[in-house]
Queue: 4 jobs
Job 1
Amino acid sequence: MGGCSGCQYKGMSTAVEETFVGVRFSEETNLTLCGTGGIRFGYGDEVIVDGEEGPVYGRVEKSPMPVFKPCQKSSALKILRGANENDQAARERQKKNEFLAKRFCRERSRELRIEMKVSKVVFPLHKGQAMFYFTADGRVDFRQLVRDLSDRFSTRVRMIQVGSRDEAALLGGIGVCGRTLCCSTWLTEFEPISIQMAKRQNLSLNPSKISGQCGRLLCCLAYEDDQYKQRSEERPSRVS
């Protein structure tokens, strides 16, 4: 059976395979597609996945997970093994450190009078650096804060400033449509969104109805904007 037409994976199999499962990491709302390498993992199994920043602790919540597109199969993360007692203990330490570090960072930033909002803290499961995601109106001098965090938790610290849309993608949630936020599931790039897009679609210009959790205009306003542009260009002009 052929793959998707017009892409680099054309000709690859689109058959549903049982070697893919859906894994949930931490409190994320969406499931991540992971390859099992031929090993059977069932619902509720705790696993260690090879993530971008190192091993990640997760829980299988869909097994198997139907996947048809070859591009999705090729980008699936790899399950390294089932979680053992050491991994479980490391996960408990990780959760505790993330909770304490987020609270400490907020308190210390106030004491240092740093205008910033701590969005999310991610500690490594075993070894690596802790990442602190934050939002701020401008550039922030957090050198003293980094030293304090590093001393307090005995780890390397990396501060990452993100925008409001990136913050929504990090935290996840449910949109006004009732579905999981696009930015936290599949949307990887943000397009410029304008109020003209809402006007072309005859939508209400009430900010509460056309804005997302990030406070910016909804990303989905751009999904069909090209069609609305084309229709407006093809529509005959009114004769006065």
Job 2
Amino acid sequence: MKVLITGGAGFIGSHLAEAMLDRGAQVTVLDDLSTGRIENLRHVLDAPGFRFIHGSVESDSDVGAACAWADLIFHLAAAVGVDLVVRYPVRTIETNVHGTENVLRYAALHDARVLLASTSEVYGRSTAAAFRETDDLLIGRPTLYRWSYAASKALDEYLALAYHKEKRLRTIVVRLFNTVGPRQTGQYGMVLPRFVGQALRGEPLRVFGDGEQSRCFCHVGDTVRALLLLTERPGAEGEIFNIGSREAISINDLARKVIELVGSRSEIVHIPYEEAYEPGFEDMRRRMPDTSKLQALTGWRPEKSLDRIIVEVRDDLVSGAVHGTATA
């Protein structure tokens, strides 16, 4: 199988590239390295069947050539992190929408299958105990740039499913819930590597808001396993699937757990949202997936606990510090 991974130098994409190579696939990664890192691919750069293209999903020539070669496309390239989204809303929207449009158009021309990575952010301000794929999307008002990411990814989903309906493109949409693990950077606001990096350095752990908002954290290995299972199931095409853990934890408790497992003496400080991001910033109080649809089709369940994830992130950052590659 010939597999194209857009955004494959990123955190999730690099783990996916390794998994596909282990399965005997030929793998091409297309990444502009704006947020991805070539260091993430150091384990596979010289592997037989691997190719890296330094290019953009917004480039017709880059995407056209890569899609013409591929049987299966994992479209992961997107704007990354709340910090980047709030600061650069135009870049966020253009990267997400134009890039996805390019990938779908050329995939349809060459009859390649596409798995589109979307996000739990599309559920917006919903207050459901657990989000289901059939729930309405309650995205906030456009004057708050924080919602530009959710709106653009929701449009990506509409576009992918429209291509499935009108062009018979074989597409799968997944909504990822806080995927974490080794190689993830805290540079763009990702909370877990940011906390672990601060704890390792003995700095205060900066909790935004009151810290009682809760999240579920899924190990990247579990997420990649779900992606692969879905591509093996014909019944997944034309559908949307949540992927994430159901082990919820408040951000305050996450900070305490990180301090304990890292063995740090760091303190916890609370920073108002308007100081961390922008005036009027809105956050989701709870974000838990209902994964029954994914489990019914594939049998998938997450395997790694949050404690194990934190230890792996700690060890990865310590190793990166030793080798000069840490970014949290």
Job 3
Amino acid sequence: MQNKTRPMWELEEAAHERGYALVCGCDEAGAGPLAGPVYAGAVILPEGLELPYLNDSKQVTPKRRDVLFDQIKEAAIAWAAASVSPEEIDATDILSARVKAMQLAIDALAVQPDYALIDGNRDKGKYFALVTPHETVIKGDSRSASIAAASILAKVSRDRYMEEMAEKYPQYCFAQHKGYGTKLHYEMLDRYGPSPIHRLTFLKKWEAARHG
């Protein structure tokens, strides 16, 4: 059966062969930034769908990500994006927040999947665990069409949120660095201190250096 499938569909096909009719891909974006939520995307694609340039969101240009974002939403059987706030990241931990965001995205799908393909190798944190039947896939966003599509949904959704926050807090230049710890971002932190959307637990080294 796998010979009939594109390589990016082998994991989905294997799940179908095990009896799972609806398989979703799930991935998150924004685990590392100093500011903003962590986002997750979940998507169920029509079997065998081919979208030009579909790949891990980090390997796709921003303009192509925007095009793919719309194509995925239009073609998907179901899609969703969900987020966990900086406050909750601080109150729990980033792994728990990532896992929770992924489960929230899966739960938000209009059609519930029988099985989920999860990017990475972690499916539970100290506070949250995935409950949908699933498997984790290392480098899944370059091995599975469904996970790749979910990575696009998560990345574009988060980037657009950070662009909105750039209008609300223009002094931090969020549109340029999306909350990641760039030289510019640290310069703005030095100048203005943390904003309401900064992850305070992620700023401990900056605080130590500032007061050291």
Job 4
Amino acid sequence: MDAAYYETLNGVQGRHWWYAARRRILSRVLQRVHDEGVPEGTLYDLGCGVGANLPVLEQFGPILCVARKR
């Protein structure tokens, strides 16, 4: 992706309802899995884009994120 797209995406993901709803769903699913006693480990976000989901992920353990640069 080009730099201009990343800049736009970074500005939108913090406030747009679509991305906010996805983060809430992600948080609920991870909380349920965590509560069921799944062994702790590293969470991977492959294709993390601008990293908007990282604050949610880091609540549940160590994270490793990879963004692809073209």
